Amino acid sequence: MAGFRVERSTKESRWFAVVLLLVLLALATLPYWGGPGDMRLVSEMAYYLALAQLWNLLAGYAGLVSVGQQAFVGLGAYAMFYLASQFNIHPLIALALTAPITAAISVPMALTMFRLRGAYFAIGTWVLAETFSLGVSLIEPLGAGSGMSLTPAIMMQIAPDRDGRDLVLYWLSLAIVAAVCAIVYLLLRSRHGLALTAIRDSEVASDSLGVDTFRTKLVIYVVTAACTGVIGGFIFLQKLRLSPEAGFSVNDWTVVVIFMVVIGGIGTLEGPVIGMLVYFGLRELLADYGTWYLILLGAVAVAIMLTAQEGLWGLVARRFNLHLVSVRRHLIR
Amino acid sequence: MDWLNILIQGGLLGGLYALFAIGLALSFGIMRLVNIAHGDFIVLSAYIALWAIQATGISTLASLVIVVPLMFAFGYALQRGLLNFTLSGGLLSPLLVTFGISVIIQNVLLQVFGADIRRLHAGAIETASVAFGGIAVGAYPLLVFAVAVIAIAGLQFLFYRTTLGRAFRATSDDAGTAELLGIDNRHLYAMAMAIAMVFTALAGVLMAIRTTFDPAAGPIRLIFAFEAVIIGGLGSLWGMLLGGMVLGIAQAVGAALSPTWQILAGHIAFLIVLVIRPSGLFPHTRD
Question: What 3-state class would DSSP assign to A268?
């Protein structure tokens, strides 16, 4: 068998890494050549891409189709607000602390929800998110039904003036999306990644080959929860105002994200990026059409699931045999 | 006395939840399809009834004559023309297609009927009550409960006494073998969805008399249906009714404590059952 070697990267994936780095650098300098509107849009695209990558990891690789990721967005946001306003913790440290907090909460959630098989898991996670939403609206220290706000005094800790805060939060959004993409990428290239790809293709087969599917799924669920919690904290750090309906909104934090992943291509790392771009493109184009826009989005998702399950990126990848982000192993002679 | 009253009202509410659950459980039991749009089909049925009443001036309960056949045909066409093509692609495909349909229905309803909160009126029966000992029980909740019992008895007859029911059970056990023995699964699945829609239509109209609805009211009905199914135990017909009753009682107890607790108490009951008895209180099959 001499003369064979396993390669993890391809020529195009190495080129793409360079392109990616350049794009990130260009975006990092945006505050110096773009307006505040551009910064807001890019920052929103960044956290949606991060949410999409995480949902894709969960559904596309681990087979855990969750309709309840808004639970972690809301929990992360509430944890951040509570720590910052009750204990006077610096908001950015509070943001970092949301990761262990949401991770800890996600473990018993996973142990309960994993009892539900397949699609019932999806609805179960949704019920859990609703439970948190209703539960939080009963808790007085968390502002009950009316929610919480971050006071100017708290925000001053980030930077004394508004422009400075905008700059910090903008860079933070880029850092978060870069970190989340890196975590997903490294996770998929690790031992867990190999196990995950096997589970994605056949859970029964991978189980019988000795993959600990339960443990692998648990790890993915908890990592995803921690990252989603931080993103949730970040989103509402930008918004300054948090209510149960906004924090635990299924439409804003899960439905939209599912559309992105499905349209772009589920089970690939490139797919969520394409899906996110398509989503924001359609939104800019069709913003004036209100409900018709959502009807169209639903129809596109249905059409893609029926005709091209691998999504837009899948079509491109198959047509040109192109893999820009390589998590596979290639056998080279 | 007060608590007995709560138990009875909650238990009767469970009849409506059992009706919600039937459509969801049928499509899952026969074709392993979890229909995320189920709640939206319930609300769609209510809107079709609203439209039929406004267009023809018939009474609310009589509108069932229009709503039920329409939903039957809609269910058949939907399954045959769309959902059948998702069944070979694993779990994700049917889930995300019905998810897309859910968003489409909500927004089409919003576009056509607007965001107003609606309600259907059924006349005197809404406020009539029957006295049992010292407790006055609403005639309408009693009627809904009776409909649920008859619906489940009817399903039991369908499944265990008819040729169609035998074919359903055969396909549910092993779709491949059933097809080898001459069953046309495409038609059978379409029939299953059509029948599921009959119960969904019934549930939608009966719900619309009891509570208000709006275009976004579907998802919470899906959740109630789902909770009733899981509490009762997958694959159990009468379990659905009991699951619905447990959910209804939990909500009634919650509501007695404080209105904000009503739905939360139902969720908590569901989670407790899931932790203690993950296969439900009356399990029949495992998926």
Answer: coil
Looking at residue B141, its amino acid is P
In angstroms, the CA A266 to CA A63 distance is: 11
| Domain extent listing, chain A | 10-332
B100 with A137: Cβ contact below 8 A: no
How many other β-carbons are positioned within 10 Å of the β-carbon of residue A175? 14
pLDDT digits (tens, 9 = 90+) for A214-223: 888 999 999 9
pLDDT at A149 over 50: yes
Å from A9 to nearest chain B CA? 29
Closest CA to A51 of A283, A238, A227, A265: A227
CATH tag, A10-332:
1.10.3470
Count of beta carbons in the 10 Å neighbourhood of residue B185: 18
Residues B246-265, mean pLDDT to the nearest whole number: 92
Predicted confidence at residue B286, as pLDDT, reads 42
Mean of pLDDT values over A150-171: 84
DSSP A142: G
Asked if residue A45 has pLDDT above 70, the reply is: yes
What pLDDT is stored for residue A219 in this prediction?
92
- Nearest to residue A16, comparing CAs of A6, A7, A24, A5? A24
Question: B91 and A63: CB-CB below 8 Å?
Answer: yes
Q: List, in order, residues 6 or more apart from B13 with CB less than 8 Å away.
A: B141, B248, B251, B252
Residue of B nearest to A311 (CA): B93
How many whole angstroms separate alpha carbon A74 and alpha carbon A91?
16
Query: What domains appear along chain B, each with residue ranges and CATH number?
Result: 2-276 (1.10.3470)
This complex has an ipTM of 0.84
